[in-house]
Design brief:
The protein is built from two helices and no strands. It is mostly helical. The longest helix is centred in the middle third of the chain and has 65 residues. The termini are far apart.
Length: 97
């Protein structure tokens, strides 16, 4: 869940900074309802941060797997070409004899 206030992303990790941005006072001066809202914003911030980390790892892994697959295809093509060259050489030798 994204926070509705775009300014929250710059201070959601720090409850004092978030309280100052939203309510204009320190965290200690907030009433319990405001503190609950700050806690909910922090939880959302950290959940989004964790999701973005997982998404980055997933994308990195997909890129690495794609690169490995491309390398395997290139290697398989090289092996096929090598086998074709050996077969051609055998055919040429068989034709000479």
């Amino acid at each position: 869940m994204e926070t509705q206030d775009p300014q929250l992303k710059y201070g959601a990790g720090n409850p004092n900074r978030l309280a100052r941005k939203r309510y204009g006072c320190d965290y200690k001066e907030l009433n319990p309802d405001q503190r609950e809202q700050i806690a909910a914003d922090q939880k959302t911030y950290y959940e989004n941060l964790a999701l973005s980390g997982r998404e980055a790892r997933r994308r990195y892994k997909a890129i690495r797997l794609r690169e490995q697959a491309e390398a395997l295809v290139i290697e398989a093509d090289a092996i096929d070409a090598e086998l074709a060259a050996k077969e051609a050489a055998r055919a040429i030798e068989a034709g000479r004899l």
